[in-house]
Amino acid sequence: MASNPAFDEGLAAPRHVAIIMDGNGRWAKKRRLPRAMGHKRGVEATRQIVRAAGDLGLEAMSLYAFSSENWKRPEDEVSDLMGLLRGYIRSDLDEFVEKGVKLKILGNYKAFAPDIVDLLEDALEKTAGGNGPTLAVALNYGAQAELAQAAAAAAAKGPVTQEAIEAELYSAGLPPLDLIIRTSGEHRLSNFMLWQAAYAELWFTDTLWPDFTPEEFTAALEEFAGRERRFGGR
Ligand code: FPP
């Protein structure tokens, strides 16, 4: 697996990083461009960061691409986002397969249009055997709904323990979440991976998502490696 020289000096490299990709709209507004352009450039940033995650040797990266609240946006914006999702999967699937990237979806993606569901299921199938990093994309995702469903599924099977809930989360099987990054100067989790965030470090930047670069991503990971994590101990 590739590794970052910054982590060779005994610093703890993160295994699983989650990103709240925020600020596409403001990026476009600042340039007097339509919001759709912001999302389009946001996908380009996503592509670069996904590549960087593989190069940096992460085991998993989770991306908040479409929340269950995003349906409330105007119809044409939702449709733009769906179009970009289709385009991203179509254009990058071969690269995922080639690099052994395993795709995972967090959220109820079956509520999407049938052609997107087919596209996603095809991508899940084609990448399932990959031996590289996992790319978990949150689609129609909300953490509170995830937790309620996981608790109900656990209760249907037996005692509702922490482990039983964890096994029913969309993220089951992923390494523990080490670091959450949010761009665009907002300091909230916005219903993203609330359970998984329990011991994660948080890293915020004012950079708007379309301007977020692999260099800044690397800097965030290096800062993480320098932080001491106590997990409630001393
Ligand atoms: C936040 O910008 C971004 C989103 C709505 C989700 C992220 C979407 C992308 C990066 C593009 C689609 C991704 C894939 C993988 C197809 P915002 O519109 O909330 O920005 P604002 O807060 O500045 O208005």
Walk me through the structure.
This protein is an alpha/beta fold. The protein has a single domain (16-225), classed as Undecaprenyl pyrophosphate synthetase (3-Layer(aba) Sandwich). It is built from 7 helices and 6 strands; from the N terminus they run βααβαβαβααββα. It has a 6-stranded parallel sheet with strand order 3-4-2-1-5-6, sandwiched between helices. The longest helix is centred in the middle third of the chain and has 25 residues, at 75-99. The radius of gyration is 18 Å and the shape is globular. It starts with 15 loop residues before the first strand and ends in an 8-residue tail after the last helix. 34% of the residues are buried. The structure holds farnesyl diphosphate (FPP). Farnesyl diphosphate (FPP) binds at residues 21-26, 39, 42-43, 46, 65, 70, 81, 84-85, 88, 184, 209.
